[in-house]
Amino acid sequence: MKIRENVQIALGNVRSNLLRTIITMLIIAFGIMALVGILTSIDSMIYSMNDSFSNMEANSFRIRPKRDGVSGRRGGRQSKQGEVVTYKQAMEFKDRYNFPSKVALSCWGTGIATAKYGGEKTNPNVMVLGADENYLNVKSYEIAVGRNFTETEVTSGQSKAIVGFDIVKSLFNENMDRAVNSVISVGNIKYKIIGVLESKGASMGMSQDRRILIPLLKAKTLYGHSQKNYDIAVALTSVEKMNDAISTAIGTFRNIRKLKLSQDNDFEIRKADGLIERLKENTAAIRLSAIGIALITLLGAAIGLMNIMLVSVTERTREIGICKALGATRKNILTQFLTEAVVICQLGGLVGIVFGILIGNVLTFFIGGTFLIPWAWILLGVTTCLVVGLVSGLYPALKASRLDPIESLRYE
Fold first, then answer.
1. Is 45 exposed, middle or buried (0-12, 13-18, 19+ CB in 10 A)?
2. Which residues have C-beta within 8 Å of that of residue 269, sequence separation ≥ 6?
3. At what angle do helices 284-315 and 375-401 cross, to 10 degrees?
4. Which of 58, 120, 235, 298 has CA 20 to 30 A from 331's CA?
5. Cα torsion through 299, 300, 306, 309, rounded to 10
6. Collapsing DSSP states into helix, strand and coil, what is residue 265?
7. What does the domain layout of the chain look like in residue ranges?
8. Angle, vertex CA 209, rays to CA 208 and CA 214, nearest 5
9. What percent of the chain has pLDDT over 70?
10. CA 79 remoteness from chain centre
């Protein structure tokens, strides 16, 4: 008997026992939906993050204070959390670091600013950051209209600003040309707009266009304090030189921090592509949990499927006897019942995969992710359904294949 004929017979039996088959298929569908949906949403978030760092993931790194807190003792001493990177240290590193690269300095100002122009104003959720003349290049921002900061504007702390597209949209009705050279107010401070950033959209639910960049020294004057940390980012021209660049940066910054040979680094190097790897590591437990939930649901579905297959064997005992009397072998009967179990599982899995993709992408849409068709998880869902169908259908199929044809014909 050909596979196509087996599948057609299986579909016919599904239609003849429609209600109980649908119930079993739905249990399978929910398990696959949980599996594919959660894994799809996780992958979409990761790909969204990857897109955000796509231009800088392989050729840049940051220097930041060590934030592991107090760790174990080494040589009778404890390793403590590193001190913040001060403005003086950041500027000194930029001057002294002689490796072929671009060094960008920046600092956080506030995330609750309100920008005003004439009678228009934004919501109080604008991010203000201090940046130098290399920040846009290192962080892969492009100027749509206007220009970047000059070194003089950065070091003298002039009241100039580069704004994101959301600011232009709120204050200038999306007219970027009108925005350039206009003077806006952020709090009580007035800034002349010299440039507008190209739109980068949202990532992980946070808009990349709702920001205002001001010269680094101006940010230090307005938002600086004794524990203010300044971010150092280094972009290389060649990724092959990453290890040499990091070694040089560590040596340079140890000298700036005046660390002794016996002292451990009180700062750490964080590569941009490491952020994605860290996110993948942190979501590994969620992935395993999703797989566990799905497997538990599929276990229940497998038991239910085995039950209806055993009922089907009992109901079709006479039919099995007729098939054997006409020449059907044990292998034919075994294959037929296994095919039915697999067909039921794959139909349920197909429904689960479709709903899983939809639910996973709907979740990522609300957090600013990108649409994704998870081919790997689709394959996992199909394979899982195949295994569940074979396992749950094996015993009923063996039972059917071992029935005595004479006794089966007598069955009422």
1. buried
2. 61, 62, 63, 246, 249, 250
3. 30
4. 298
5. -130
6. coil
7. 3-52+282-410, 83-265
8. 100
9. 86
10. 33
Asked which of 183-197, 277-291, 344-358 is least confident by mean pLDDT, the reply is 277-291
Contacts for 331-334 with beta carbons within 8 Å, 24 or more apart?
A: 331/401, 332/1, 333/397, 333/400, 333/401, 333/403, 334/397, 334/398, 334/400, 334/401
CA-nearest of 271, 270, 223 to 108 is 223
Question: Could you read off the pLDDT of 212-253 as tens digits, one per residue?
Answer: 999 999 999 999 988 999 999 999 877 778 889 999 999 999
Residue closest to 97 by CA, chosen among 134, 70, 67, 68: 134
pLDDT at residue 412 is higher than 60: no
Of 209, 203, 233, nearest in space to 61 by CA? 233
DSSP character for 327? T
How far apart CA 293 and CA 248 sit, in angstroms, is 48
Rg (CA), the chain: 32
Res 171: pLDDT: 94
Q: What would the DSSP string read from start to end of 115-154? A: EEETTEE--S-EEEEEE-TTHHHHTT--EEEE-PPPHHHH
DSSP lists the bridge partners of residue 64 as 268
Q: Compute CA distances 310 → 318, 319, 341, 387, whole Å.
A: 14, 14, 11, 18
324 vs 340: CA distance, rounded Å: 18
- Cα 347 to Cα 353: distance, rounded to the nearest angstrom: 10
CA–CA separation, 18 and 148 (whole Å): 67
Per DSSP bridges, beta strands 189-197 and 160-163 are: parallel
Per-residue pLDDT tens digits for 56-107: 445 789 999 987 544 444 444 445 678 899 999 999 999 999 998 999 999 9
CA angle 27, 28, 31 (to 5 degrees): 90
- Residues 42, 48, 53, 55, Cα dihedral to 10°: 130
Q: What is the pLDDT of residue 310?
A: 83
How many Cα atoms sit within 13 Å of 193 on the Cβ side? Answer: 31
* Geometric angle at alpha carbon 192, from 114 and 153, rounded to 5°: 115
In which element (H, E) is residue 162 found?
strand 160-163
Backbone angles phi, psi at 404, to 5 degrees: -75, 125
Q: Does residue 181 have a pLDDT over 90?
A: yes
